[in-house]
Amino acid sequence: MLVPRMDPTSKKRRSRWDRDPAFDRNGRPKVASVTGRDLEIFKLLARYRYLNIDDLHAFVGGNRKALSHHLNLLSRKPNLYLNRPEQQRCHADANYRPLIYELDDRAIGILRQAGVPIFPRIHHRNFAHEVMTSRIMASFELGAVGNSSVRIVSWSEIIGSGKTPPAIRTSSRPMHIPISFALGGKELRTEIAADGKPFGIEYRLPEQSATHRFFPGIEADIGTEPIESADFERSSIGKKFAAYLAIEETHAYRTHFGFPNLFIPFVTTTRSRMNSMMALLKKLTDGRGSRRILFTTFPSLGSPEHAALSARNMLTVLWDRVGCDPLRLDQ
Predict the structure, then answer these.
(1) pLDDT single digits (tens) 44-61
(2) Any residues with CB less than 8 A from the CB of 237 and at least 6 apart, and which?
(3) What pTM was estimated for this model as a whole?
(4) In degrees rounded to 5, what are phi and psi of residue 178?
(5) 225-254 pLDDT tens trace
(6) Which of 25, 199, 241, 282 is most buried by a 10 A CB count?
(7) Of 74, 97, 123, which marks where a domain is finished?
(8) Last residue of a domain, one of 100, 123, 146
(9) Residue 312: what are its φ and ψ, rounded to 5°?
(10) Do the Cβ atoms of 153 and 140 come closer than 8 Å?
(11) Is the separation of the CB atoms in 282 and 323 below 8 Å?
(12) Is 53 part of any domain?
């Protein structure tokens, strides 16, 4: 019996996950022309490795449905400028969630030719954590768009300013702060590096000199490490608190980064876990707390709640603090 061959150009529904070509009316694979808006998208994904369609749309605007179709084309053969990471398929309702994108080799090549710095891409064991980090970091930048009184100071600008110590500018691990501290009656020495990259917020008010707040990155928590641990070699929220409190007390951020101040944003997935973290910080500081350690929440990749960056602005949310009033970072 003859089996009819499937016409590859037929209008069958394509999987949102495969990379097979999309065809034009003449049966030829559609070839994408890279536009200036595409370059802006590529640059965003160079800064924040994983962003979804809604995140990208919040930055570049336009018709969301048309953008979705275009990103789909950029991800398919023969274009392959973008990739839709396979790891996102492991999460609940993956077929109904906004697709997450990252750069593929052809887009990286275009950015390198344009002189855009591209940091090495590494494999992340915890994809959900890296997605959360990327989206939160992007939310800071998005929050400054259209706000003439604030500006995000990027890590590349900080390094290029000449104000960081020379040893840090040439270090292979410039984001790792060495620190000694006591925890549970033991003296510990370690290095701590936040998620993402260090950045600053510049505040510009009429007829006033600019002021700044600086951050080592963020501490994105999806609940995979304990709040406290009796094993001091193991990473825990308590160990991070102790390290950051020592950095605050010794002003190690000045000698390491050259920053005049340092604020540490802890972002976790639920209010109840955030409250547990704040209770531990209160315990470690005998009730004093810290005005520089900040707390808020952001849904994880697997959460039933979907957080649009436009609705979860890290500059305008109220950041809780232990022992101090909440803080808005756009003020």
Answers:
(1) 999 999 999 999 999 999
(2) 221, 225, 226, 227, 228, 266, 277, 280
(3) 0.91
(4) -75, 135
(5) 889 876 556 779 999 999 999 999 999 999
(6) 241
(7) 123
(8) 123
(9) -130, 70
(10) no
(11) yes
(12) yes
